[in-house]
Amino acid sequence: MPDFTRTHKITLIPGDGIGPEVTAATINILEAAGKQTGCSFDWHNYDAGADAYAKTGEYIPKALYKSIEQNRVALKGPVTTPIGGGFSSINVTLRKKFDLYANFRPVKSLPGLKSNYPDIDLVIFRENTEDLYAGLEVMINPDIAQSMKIITRKGSTRIAKSAFDYAKKHGRKKIHAIHKANIMKLSDGLFIKCCKEVSEEFPDVTYAEHIVDNTCMQLVLNPYQYDIILTENLYGDILSDLCSAFVGGLGLVPGANLGAECAIFEAVHGSAPDIAGQDKANPTALLQSAVLMLHHIDEAATADKIQAALEKVYAAGKTLTRDVGGKSGTRAFSEAVIAAL
C-alpha cells in the first residue's frame, strides 16, 4: 500500500450553483487516485461570493485570502457574478490580488466525442490582470460610463514569455499573437511590440500576428492552423469560449491562473444555477483543471492516472452526462472515472 508521505495543502473554493456538485465529484476522484499513487490532500474549504457574504459579511473572506497566501495553490469551482450590478467578479478580484498574470487554457479533444473539428489540440495564453477585462470603470456622468483599457510593457512581456517558454518546453512550434492594433494603435500596438521582442529570443518557434476579428473567422474555418494563441485579457476570454465549442463546450475545458507566488485552478464555465442540485452537471472541466493542478504540484503520476481514466470513460461513452449526449448524472460519471482508475 502507498505510504502517503506526500500530503498537499490545497485551498478549496467549491463555489455556488453547480459548483459544490462538480467540486465534490472532483475531490472524490482525486482522493481515489491519490490512494493508488501515494499522495493525499488536506483541503482548506472556503466560500466566496454571495454565500460568503451571507455568512461573513465579506464577498471574499480575509481567511480565504490568508489560506491562498499560505498554501499557494487553490482549486476553485464556479462562482456566480451578477450582471450589470452587484459585487465585482470573484475571479477577477483573486487574479488581481495575487497577480495571477497568466491564464493558461488548453483545448484538447476527448476520445469518443463527435465533433465537426476532431483531434483539436491548441493552447491559449491569456494575459490575466490588465486590459478592459480588469474592470477599471468610472461614471463620467449619469449618461456616460467609461472603461479603461490599460496595457503595460511588463504585463505584455511576461505573458509572451510564458507562452514561448511553454512552447519550448513542450515542443510547440507556432505562436499567434492576437490583437486589434489596426485600431488601438497604442495599447494593442504595445502588446504586439512586446510579443515580437520576446519572439526574437525563440528562433525555433514560428511567430505570427492575427487581428482578433479575423482570428474568430479563421478559427471557425480552420482551427488547425493554430498551435498557441497568445492574447490580451478580454480577447482571450472570448476566444477561449469560442475554442471550447470545438471540443464539446465549456463543461469540458480546464483553466489555470498562474503567478510567481500562487496558482488558482478553475473550470472556465459558469455556475449554471438552472441545473444546480439536480445531479446533471458535468465535472470534466474542473477535473481537468485539477489535473493541471496536480502537474503544478509535481504529482504527474496522479495527474496522468486521472487523465487516462477520464479518457477511458469518454471513449466507452456509457456513463456520460447530458451535455455531451449521455444520460448519466454527476455522481454516476464520477463513479465511472473512479472505477476506470
Automatic annotation (TrEMBL):
The keyword Oxidoreductase applies. Its EC number is 1.1.1.41. One of its GO terms (molecular function) is NAD binding. The keyword Oxidoreductase applies. Residues 9-337 form the Isopropylmalate dehydrogenase-like domain. Keywords: Oxidoreductase. Transmembrane segments: none annotated. It comes from the Bacteria. One of its GO terms (biological process) is isocitrate metabolic process. Belongs to the isocitrate and isopropylmalate dehydrogenases family. This is Isocitrate dehydrogenase (NAD(+)). It comes from Granulicella mallensis (strain ATCC BAA-1857 / DSM 23137 / MP5ACTX8).
